TrEMBL record, chain A:
<keyword id="KW-0411">Iron-sulfur</keyword>
<dbReference type="InterPro" id="IPR051452">
    <property type="entry name" value="Diverse_Oxidoreductases"/>
</dbReference>
<keyword id="KW-0479">Metal-binding</keyword>
<dbReference type="InterPro" id="IPR002888">
    <property type="entry name" value="2Fe-2S-bd"/>
</dbReference>
<dbReference type="InterPro" id="IPR012675">
    <property type="entry name" value="Beta-grasp_dom_sf"/>
</dbReference>
<dbReference type="Pfam" id="PF01799">
    <property type="entry name" value="Fer2_2"/>
</dbReference>
<keyword id="KW-0560">Oxidoreductase</keyword>
<dbReference type="InterPro" id="IPR036010">
    <property type="entry name" value="2Fe-2S_ferredoxin-like_sf"/>
</dbReference>
<dbReference type="InterPro" id="IPR001041">
    <property type="entry name" value="2Fe-2S_ferredoxin-type"/>
</dbReference>
UniProtKB/TrEMBL annotation, chain B:
<dbReference type="Pfam" id="PF03450">
    <property type="entry name" value="CO_deh_flav_C"/>
</dbReference>
<dbReference type="InterPro" id="IPR016169">
    <property type="entry name" value="FAD-bd_PCMH_sub2"/>
</dbReference>
<keyword id="KW-0285">Flavoprotein</keyword>
<keyword id="KW-0560">Oxidoreductase</keyword>
<dbReference type="InterPro" id="IPR005107">
    <property type="entry name" value="CO_DH_flav_C"/>
</dbReference>
<feature type="domain" description="FAD-binding PCMH-type">
    <location>
        <begin position="1"/>
        <end position="176"/>
    </location>
</feature>
<protein>
    <submittedName>
        <fullName>Xanthine dehydrogenase family protein subunit M</fullName>
    </submittedName>
</protein>
<dbReference type="InterPro" id="IPR002346">
    <property type="entry name" value="Mopterin_DH_FAD-bd"/>
</dbReference>
<dbReference type="InterPro" id="IPR036318">
    <property type="entry name" value="FAD-bd_PCMH-like_sf"/>
</dbReference>
Length: 162, 289
């Protein structure tokens, strides 16, 4: 066992970690963050995406012990208790989800992309949006609703309708 | 799917990492981004007893050193984008990196990791073979440079010895008049490639002076195509014998027959990719001239 300290969604916590414990399992079991979904456990589906020190990271391909001292954000910290982050609102209105299993991964992958586009003051084309989400698999929506949601969230950030 | 038990060690310096790797020998593996190693461990295809975490060591960076471009082992795939030296001198590398995984993999995966993992259709091993790169490997006792053509021995098997670790790749800078391209096909964006072809040419503005070609998916390691390279030399950039090169190369290989594609399909695919990569490289050469 190795003692590690993680700052997860703004709260510091020190836990014992067996080296082989995946960050995804640690977040679910020791931090109670069941929004971290584990779809494939080998980096193919993107469901377990969290932010490690501010950037998207597959928590199924990360050992918790590697993250000692790191800052981690999960979907639970996005948009408050009512999930009102602009991208979450857009997923709702644009039918960006159906069963919802993949949704936390999409939100965590795409929120920085939305921020980046808003900061650059530009609307990406659909090809760029699809490239940005190419590491996430959704079996329900056929992706059209997700692309529309990303456009809407970026449009909201740019201060006009997408 | 969870990995077998192992002991974890965070390296404080390169020297510390090499000491630990020397101590553990065959039972130790360095880990950086973990984008290839952790899936293998989750499947228990890899069961290292000791992981040496090198992720935070200062081994990242792309810089010209005289006639060579040195890429540090912890340079992330994403860092290749927008790098002026890559864009100017190594168009096939820039093309190839776009095909690596997807954005989250490219942000975390490292150059040394991809090279050491040696997936048969991985992109960085292919361009290392294409551009005659040398793999710089360090152990606690020595540093050695291994030509890419001698580094990849089989699928997931390299010339690295126990206790050794990749610290950098060194690419000879191509001459001013050069161009290149890299084309890959996989089932879906970000998937492992079914096959890929990279081309690099030196030219005089009108004709090919010297050509290099690499193909992944034809064998268990990326292979060069000496017959195609000889065929292209002296040919006009405006009308290279691309179809002939593709079909003659395809006839010379014996690709795998598996659940992804039949050998026949792979051969036809590689002929097409070869043709397109040659045309793309020659077109770029003309545009630059």
């Amino acid at each position: 066992m190795t003692e590690i300290t993680l700052t997860v969604n703004g709260i510091d916590k020190t836990v014992d970690a067996e080296p082989r414990r995946l960050l995804a399992d640690m977040l679910r079991q020791e931090f109670g963050l069941s929004g971290v979904h584990i779809g494939c456990a080998h980096g193919a589906c993107g469901c377990c995406t969290v932010h490690l020190d501010g950037t998207p990271r597959l928590s199924c391909l990360t050992f918790a012990v590697q993250c000692d001292g790191a800052t981690i954000t999960t979907v639970e910290a996005m948009g408050g208790a009512l999930a009102e982050h602009p991208l979450q609102l857009a997923f709702r209105s644009e039918h960006g989800l159906q069963c919802g299993y993949c949704t936390p991964g999409f939100i965590m992958t795409l929120a920085p992309f939305v921020d980046d586009m808003v900061a650059q003051r530009r609307m990406p084309d659909d090809g760029e949006i699809r490239e940005a989400m190419s590491g996430n698999i959704c079996r329900c929506t056929g992706y059209h609703g997700i692309v529309a949601a990303v456009r809407k969230a970026i449009g909201a950030g740019l201060g006009k309708d997408a | 799917m969870r990995p077998a038990s192992f002991e974890y060690h965070r390296a404080r310096s390169l020297e510390h990492a090499l000491e630990l790797l020397a101590e553990f020998g065959d039972d130790g593996r360095p880990i950086a981004g973990g984008q290839s190693l952790v899936p293998m461990m989750n499947f228990r295809l890899a069961r290292p007893a000791h992981l040496v975490d090198i992720d935070k060591l200062p081994l990242a960076g792309i810089e010209a050193d005289g006639p060579t471009l040195r890429i540090g082992a912890l340079t992330r795939h994403e860092d290749y984008f927008g790098h002026p030296l890559i864009a100017e001198h190594f168009p096939a590398i820039l093309d190839a990196v776009h095909y690596i995984g997807h954005p989250t993999i490219r942000r975390n995966g490292s150059t040394g990791g991809s090279i050491s993992h040696a997936d048969p259709t991985a992109e960085l091993p292919a361009v290392a073979v294409l551009y005659d790169a040398e793999i710089v490997a360090r152990s606690a006792s020595e540093e050695r440079r291994i030509p890419a053509a001698e580094f990849f021995l089989s699928a997931y098997v390299t010339a690295l010895e126990p206790g050794e670790m990749v610290v950098a790749l060194e690419f000879p800078l191509p001459p001013q008049n050069s161009a290149g391209s890299f084309i890959e096909l996989g089932e879906r964006s970000g998937d492992f490639a079914t096959a890929s072809v990279g081309i690099s040419i030196e030219h005089d503005g009108v004709s090919v002076v010297r050509a290099a070609m690499v193909c992944s998916g034809a064998d268990l390691v990326p292979i060069r195509a000496p017959e195609v390279e000889a065929l292209l030399a002296g040919q006009p950039l405006a009308a290279p014998p691309a179809a002939e090169a593709g079909s003659s190369f395809a006839a010379s290989i014996d690709p795998a027959n598996d659940h992804i594609a039949s050998a026949e399909y792979r051969r036809a695919l590689i002929a097409q990719l070869t043709q397109r990569a040659i045309v793309a490289a020659c077109t770029r050469a003309l545009e630059k001239s």
